[in-house]
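Technical note accompanying the year-one report. For the benefit of new consortium partners, we illustrate the data format agreed upon in the data management plan: each record pairs a sequence with a structure-token string. No post-processing was applied to the example shown here.
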Amino acid sequence: MTWAVFLSILAVCIVKVLMTCLPTGTVNWLIRKFEMHAKLHEEDVMISINGTQLEDKEKMQVIRAFNEAAVLEKYTIYRGYNEHVYLNPKNGGTPIVIDAKKGKYNVKIIMHKYNDHIDIVKQYKKKIVAYSVHVEPLQKHFLSAAADMA
């Protein structure tokens, strides 16, 4: 009888440890699944500025800068009420449009440059997520080139 109690307590303890201490691979998968600012991969991405598609070196610079960006703030968007403010800002300049593939879904990312940050609007499925990031290389170098193309 005491062995049965001991074995049941041991089984419960093992299940508790497994549930509270997930393996690193599982934790990384969960984080990637729900992260707001996901990393881009070159083969899944098409980048355009003012209708002109970027190629090789410029495309890699944008992807590298996007992946290194630090999220500053997430904005609250109310569908049909203030989404146009983020999709078509008055003083956002020429946007960089990124069409990416995330799993089986198409994701459209629109980036608008400001003096101290970049606003990013992600459209996927039927959701819109807006947030601002700080990324020095993209703000200084590349978005000035976008203004030249406009």
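Partners are asked to follow this layout when depositing records. The helical segments are 2-20, 24-34, 56-68, 83-87, 136-149.
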